[in-house]
Specification:
By secondary structure, this protein is mainly α. It has helices at 11-22, 25-37, 40-53, 60-67.
């Protein structure tokens, strides 16, 4: 855990990642609602657009994971 700065002494990195992901929770919820109501051909393009928009942002992997839950 120390290699990735995820241990308790380095909580700042965890908090930064949490803050980055927070901004995408509502989008993830909206995508989940769309997935429940519509076929993949209707909601997946929105997901792909969001994933494209986050490319290169800090914590991109964490954000992508949040969007795809």
């Amino acid at each position: 855990m120390a290699i990735f700065n995820l241990d308790a002494k380095h909580g700042a990195l965890r908090q930064m990642r949490k803050n980055a992901v927070q901004g995408y929770l509502q989008t993830a919820e909206e995508l989940a609602e769309m997935a429940a109501l519509f076929g993949e051909d209707e909601w997946v393009p929105f997901l792909m657009a969001e994933i494209k928009a986050i490319k290169g942002q800090p914590f991109e992997t964490a954000i992508r994971h949040t969007l795809m839950l």
